[in-house]
Amino acid sequence: MKLSFTTLGCPDWPLDLIVERSVEYGFDAIDFRGLTGEMNIWKLPEFSSSIEETRNKITAAGLSVSCFSSSVHVFSTENFEKNMNEVKEYAKLCEFFGTRYIRVFGGKIGDTDREQAIQTVVTHLREMAAVAKNHGIKILIETHDDWISCDNVRKVMEQVDSENVGVLWDVHHPYRVTGEQPEDTLKALAPWIEYTHVKDSRITGSNPHSDFTYCLVGEGDIPIMHVYELLKSNGYEGYYTLEWEKKWHPEIEDANIAFPHYVQSMKKIAMEVQI
Is the pTM of this model over 0.85? Predict the structure, then answer.
């Protein structure tokens, strides 16, 4: 089991502390989603003028960069040029760090007809995939926002080049927000799933799809062990990445609690699952 985490969980930590704690807690990799308040990390010295020093710190610690998680919303036509520029910046970072993936969102579609939205996303992903191909990497569309349903994501993936576009399965959202069972998600998206985001939650109100609170992994009711069983039996060898959204939800536990808890919980799952 390969374990990573997104830096959303430690939004105030500087790079040196991120690397130090990654090793201390037992992670294998880091998924960069912002650093010390800057979401567009290529603008920071650590990923521009001092980029070689950053790579050396990460590799010397025995770590990898599992993904660069962008802010790109693929559906957006208004921001398409900006999104393409962001993909290009992250593609350069991927190539430098030996990172395979850039995460993108499908994005909100508003009142747009679903089939029309699918075609827009397909068109935009094809252009982004061309950039990815030039750098030998892959764009991952996440099961998120208006693209949580496996059926909608499947319709996109059937029309793009799977060599340069894949799926990031956020194992929380389909189950919690739409009631989609993990078996159904995997059945629909298995050929394209190359990465995961893991988080847990508990129901706090009358609507189980919207009234929930994030909690430490294993303290909610997201069937994480079952998801692991399904993925393992399907031959998945990618990362299990903790997406602890401390930046967006400051009330949840600090990283120095959530991060080691996650590693311990996932290693326990790995030991208990015999496939």
Answer: yes
